[in-house]
Amino acid sequence: MKYKMIVLDVDGTLLNNDRIITARMRATLIKVQQMGIRIVLASGRPTYGVLPLAKELELDKNDGYVLSYNGGQIINVQTGELLFEKRINPEMIPYLERKTKKAGFDIFTYHKDTVYTGNASNEYIIREAELNVMHIREVENFAEAMDFSPCKCMIVSDDEDALMELERHWKKRLAGELDVFRSEKYFLEVVPPFIDKANTLSVLLENLGIESENVIAVGDGVCDVTMIQLAGLGIAMGNAQESVKACADYVTTTNDEDGVAVAIEKIVISEIRPAEIPLDKLNESAKHALMGNLGIQYTYASEDRIEATMPVDERTRQPFGILHGGATLALAETVAGLGSLILCKPDEIMVGMQVSGNHLSSAHEGDTVRAVGTILHRGRSSHVWNIDVFTSTDKLVSSVRVVNSITKKR
Q1: What's the CA gap between 291 and 283, in Å, rounded?
Q2: Which end of the chain is more exposed for a tag (fewer CB within 10 A), N or C?
Q3: Which of 78, 88, 32 is nearest to 55 (CA)?
Q4: Is the dihedral of CA 19, 21, 24, 28 positive or negative?
Q5: Is 333 part of the annotated catalytic residue set?
Q6: In sequence order, what E strands does 146-275 have?
Q7: What pLDDT, in 10s, does the model give residues 256-293?
Q8: Can you tell me the distance from the alpha carbon of 317 to that of 281, in angstroms, rounded to the nearest whole number?
Q9: What is the mean pLDDT of the chain?
C-alpha cells in the first residue's frame, strides 16, 4: 500500500460550509483507517477544538493524531499522549500586549477550554470561541493573567492594511524569537519560531518512521501550503486560493462537494486490492462493535471469498451450551458485509437487506466455528452471499444466505 497517512486541514477542507462532517466524509475516512492508513487532523484550531472532530472520525480507535495550533502540538488521540509541543516564551507576552494595544487591536489566546482576551465583546473572538466550543474569560491585564505559556496568540483587527503593516514589522523585529503570519484577513497569528504544519508534521513522520512520499496532505489555505508541498501527494481543495492550487499535485472538488472524500475514493480506495487490507487492523477497529463483542475475527479476504472465526462461549452460546442461532446469523452478516464493502465501487455504500439461515447441526461450548462466505450474485444494486459455518472438525453447522443492497453515496 503506497500511502500510509492522510493529513487533513479542518476548516474549509474536512468540514463543509455548515461546519459539519458529512456522512460520506465520515464513512470514507473510517474506511481508509480500517485499511491501515492513519489520519491526522492538522489545524490552526486549539487541541480542545479539534479533539471532538477526531473522535467523530474514530481517530481514537485507529491510532490517529491531532496536529493543532498550526503545528504547536501533536496529540495521539487514542492514548492522549503529547508527542510534541512548543510554546511562546512568556517573557514576550507583555511586549505583544503593549504593541497590540498601541495599534488599537485586540489580542487573545487559548488555554484548555478557555479563550483569554482583553475584549470579550469582539465579534471575531466570540465566533472563534463558539467554533471551538470554548468559554471566554475577559481579563483586564492580558499579560498578567497568563499563568501559562500559550501555544499561540491571535491579534484581531478589521483594519486589514494596519494588520498587514504590523505583520511586516514583526517579521523583521521578532525574527528568530517568534513567527507571525496571516491566517484570515482579520487574524494575525503569533507562534513560536519555526512552527508551521510541515515542520511539525516532519516530527510526527520521523517518530512513526513514515516517509513523506507515503503521505497525502489536503488543504485549502495558505497555512496548508508547506504540508501540501512536503507530502508525496499534495491536494488542494476546489475552494482553495489559486496560490494554494498552484502548489498542489492535484485539485479536488470543494468542501461543500465532499472534496476530501472524492479524492480519497479516487486515489486511495479504488487502488487498494482486497489482499492489501490488513485484517488485524479490521479486527482491532471493530473490537468495541458487535463483531468484537462476539469475538468474531476475520481470517481471510478476497473479492469472492471471506472467512472469519467465532468462539462458542458465554457470549455466543445458548443457556444449555450450544451455539446460538442468532450469533451464527451475526457471524454470517459480518462476513457478507466485509465482502460487499470490498466489492463496492468508491462511490457506493452497502446496506444489509435480508438474511436467512438453515441450522443443520450444533456446535458446543469450547469450540470455535469458521464461516466461509462466497459471492453468488454480484449485481449493480445487490450482492447475494452464501455463508457456510463449520465446527473445528469441519462439520457443517449452518448455511446462511445474505442479501446486501448497493446504493450510490449521496
Answers
A1: 8
A2: C
A3: 78
A4: positive
A5: yes
A6: 153-156, 179-184, 187-191, 215-219, 233-236, 250-251
A7: 999 999 999 889 887 765 556 678 877 887 777 899 99
A8: 27
A9: 93
pLDDT score of 14 more than 70: yes
Provide the whole-model pTM: 0.74
Around 243, how many Cα atoms within 13 Å sit in the side-chain half-sphere?
Answer: 6
Site of grid cell 472467512: 307
User: For 57-111, where are the alpha helices, taking DSSP H only?
Assistant: 93-103
pLDDT per residue as tens digits for the range 154-177: 999 999 999 999 999 999 999 989
Catalytic residue, candidates 56, 284, 333, 365: 333
Which helix H or strand E contains 2, and what residues bound it?
none
344 pLDDT more than 70: yes
Closest to 228 (Cα-Cα) out of 205, 263, 198: 198
> H-helix or E-strand containing 114?
strand 114-117
Please give the DSSP secondary-structure letter assigned to residue 118: S
The sign one gets for the Cα dihedral 47, 52, 53, 55 is positive
- Confirm if 19 and 131 have CB atoms less than 8 A apart: yes
The amino acid present at 303, given as its one-letter code, is E
| Matching residue, cell 492535484 | 250
Query: Which DSSP string do the residues of 126-151 spell out, in sequence order?
Result: HHHHHHTT-EEEE-SSHHHH--S--S
Work out the average pLDDT over 302-312.
Answer: 92
Pairing mode, strands 38-42 and 65-68: parallel
Note the residue count of the chain: 410
Q: What phi, psi does 114 have (nearest 5°)?
A: -130, 140
pLDDT tens digits for 396-405? 999 999 999 9
Find the angle CA(108)-CA(114)-CA(120) to the nearest 5 degrees: 50
Coil, strand or helix: which one is 279?
Answer: helix
